[in-house]
């Protein structure tokens, strides 16, 4: 395939994400108010507790087997490398830009955690189905792509909620040190993140950490990520159970069909919420331009270049198999924008919400260009 053909193939999935995102922004406008702030909060909870677990569990059950788990052992390591590398680059950016203490966890999170969920689930199948795709038969490509994406999404969720969550928690707690006890329970707005119109504080100094409302919500997100992986792996890895639930002739296929039906709502719902949340970034904040430029340079220039060296090195030493789709998938880890759930985490603590909206607005706005160009180059590189 020529460069132009590869560019067109790479641009289609990015345009799909962009169009649905724009629809979400339109629905969130004040004069439309279909996807307002309260609606997004309630929809977010449905996604996290229903759609997202169903999507991951169903895809893992259908695509992950004992043999494929051995074949894909490098995927968890690749995700870990992106977090370690992003954290190192984020630390350098913090030393240069000297941001306020309450934003340091947000900056590290944006540099370390990429969108390894919805973005992969949209891009990989769309690239496979494009005419003239360099990845061979569309059905085989789609099946393998779902296996790669599901595994990456499940592992990425655990890293996000165990690492980035605590980064933001620590940095937000440091910014509130010295605040008077009468005002240390945060404002009413964070208290409504999970409680609708309730004025009950999100965090209380009178309660132990394990009883705080944020921990009650965040721990289910982390435990759900583990549970959905366990269920999916268990069904996929045990042939007897897989034959009972997966396939046209499986006697319990109605269970898998129902779970898959729920999971299909995850991607459009998350993308619509993303569009609505990005709208807040248009209102602006006091984020310095140097900080924005630094995050963009880290994620869209330094990260992909280092990713090419890492994956090529892994291929040279025989750590990964030279399948073009698998190589493209691993390289894509280094080119995606920051994880959307970072914005949800900042909402939990009421620290850096506006700044996060501005960062995400610029990051996802430029991702439509950056992701298309890097996807084109990656396909050329592996093909």
Would you mind describing this structure in some detail?
It is a single chain. This protein has 383 residues and is mainly alpha-helical. It is 74% helix and 0% strand. The chain is built from 16 helices and no strands. It has helices spanning 3-27, 37-63, 66-71, 74-97, 104-112, 118-129, 138-175, 188-195, 213-237, 239-245, 253-263, 266-279, 289-316, 324-332, 341-349, 353-382. Mean pLDDT is 79; it is low at 178-220.
Please describe the structure with a list of short key phrases separated by commas or semicolons.
mainly alpha, 383 residues
Brief synopsis:
The chain is an all-alpha fold. 74% of the residues lie in helices and 0% in strands.
User: How would you describe the oligomerization state of the chains in this entry?
Assistant: single chain
In terms of structural class, how would the helical and strand content be classed?
mainly alpha
Round the Cα radius of gyration to an integer and report it. 21 Å
Classify the beta-strand content into a percent band: under 5%
Overall geometric form: globular
* H/E series: HHHHHHHHHHHHHHHH
What helical percentage do the residues reach?
over 70%
Task: Return the average pLDDT rounded to an integer.
Answer: 79
Low-confidence stretches: 178-220
User: What can be said about the biggest beta sheet?
Assistant: none
Number of helices: 16
How many strands in all? 0
| Distance from first to last alpha carbon | 9 Å
């Amino acid at each position: 395939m020529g460069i132009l053909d590869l560019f067109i193939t790479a641009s289609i999935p990015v345009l799909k994400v962009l169009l649905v995102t724009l629809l979400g922004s339109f629905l969130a406008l004040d004069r439309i108010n279909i996807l307002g702030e309260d609606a997004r909060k309630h929809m977010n909870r449905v996604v996290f507790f229903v759609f997202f677990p169903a999507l991951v569990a169903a895809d893992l059950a259908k695509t992950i087997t004992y043999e494929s788990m051995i074949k894909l052992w490098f995927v968890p390591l690749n995700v870990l490398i992106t977090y370690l590398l992003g954290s190192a680059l984020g630390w350098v950016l913090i030393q240069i830009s000297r941001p306020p203490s309450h934003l340091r966890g947000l900056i590290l999170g944006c540099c370390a955690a990429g969108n390894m969920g919805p973005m992969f689930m949209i891009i990989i199948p769309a690239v496979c189905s494009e005419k003239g795709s360099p990845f061979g038969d569309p059905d085989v490509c789609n099946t393998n792509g779902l296996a790669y994406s599901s595994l990456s999404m499940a592992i990425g969720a655990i890293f996000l909620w165990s690492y980035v969550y605590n980064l933001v928690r620590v940095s937000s707690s440091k910014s509130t040190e010295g605040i008077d006890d009468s005002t240390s329970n945060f404002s009413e707005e964070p208290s409504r993140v999970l409680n609708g119109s309730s004025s009950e504080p999100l965090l209380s100094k009178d309660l132990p950490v394990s009883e705080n409302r944020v921990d009650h919500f965040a721990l289910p997100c982390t435990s759900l990520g583990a549970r959905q992986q366990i269920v999916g792996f268990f069904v996929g890895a045990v042939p007897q159970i897989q034959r009972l639930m997966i396939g046209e002739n499986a006697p319990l296929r109605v269970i898998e069909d129902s779970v898959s039906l729920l999971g299909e709502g995850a991607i459009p719902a998350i993308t619509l919420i993303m569009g609505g949340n990005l709208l807040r970034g248009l209102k602006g904040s006091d984020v310095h331009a140097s900080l924005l430029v630094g995050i963009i340079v880290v994620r869209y220039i330094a990260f992909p270049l280092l990713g090419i060296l890492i994956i090529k090195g892994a291929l040279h030493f025989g750590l990964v198999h030279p399948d073009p789709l698998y190589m493209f998938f691993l390289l894509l880890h280094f080119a995606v924008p920051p994880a959307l759930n970072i914005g949800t985490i900042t909402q939990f603590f009421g620290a850096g919400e506006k700044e996060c909206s501005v960062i995400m607005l610029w990051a996802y706005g430029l991702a439509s260009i950056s992701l298309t160009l890097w996807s084109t180059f990656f396909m050329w590189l592996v093909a």
